[in-house]
């Protein structure tokens, strides 16, 4: 083996940690600032919800829209997977299959 290295340096983890994870529990000022920031974000979200509600949007409509987007994405993913398998079988690129199925490459 080689010569042993000095172990005086502190270990630095390669895993990023959250800003509050490294703070001592006694650092109440930092925790208080974080709480205040979260309260400001909560208030901003409440204002945005109120604005959207005033514009005529409803929570039910939003939930339906999100659900339909998820369904669309799942169907599109399945279609892309099938198109990819067909391309492999035919020995062509997926892009080459788009005109055959009247698909737009930019979609």
TrEMBL record:
Q: Which organism is it from?
A: Podarcis lilfordi
Q: Name one Pfam family in it.
A: Swi5
Q: Which key words are in the record?
A: DNA damage, DNA repair
A single Gene Ontology CC term: Swi5-Sfr1 complex
Q: What is this protein called?
A: DNA repair protein SWI5 homolog
**What function is annotated for this protein?**
Component of the SWI5-SFR1 complex, a complex required for double-strand break repair via homologous recombination.
State the residue spans of region: Disordered: 1-29
GO BP annotations listed: double-strand break repair via homologous recombination
- Record keyword Flavoprotein present: no
The keyword Transmembrane helix belongs to this UniProt entry's keyword annotation? no
Protein family (similarity comment): Belongs to the SWI5/SAE3 family.
């Amino acid at each position: 083996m080689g010569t042993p290295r000095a172990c005086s340096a502190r270990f630095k983890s390669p895993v990023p940690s959250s800003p509050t994870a490294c703070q001592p529990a006694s650092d109440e000022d930092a925790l208080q600032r974080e709480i205040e920031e979260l309260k400001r974000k909560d208030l901003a979200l409440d204002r945005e919800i109120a604005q959207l509600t005033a514009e005529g949007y409803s929570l039910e409509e939003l939930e339906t829209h999100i659900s339909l987007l998820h369904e669309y994405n799942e169907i599109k993913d399945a279609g892309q997977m099938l198109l990819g398998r067909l391309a492999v079988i035919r020995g062509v690129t997926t892009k080459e299959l788009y005109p055959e199925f009247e698909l737009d490459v930019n979609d």
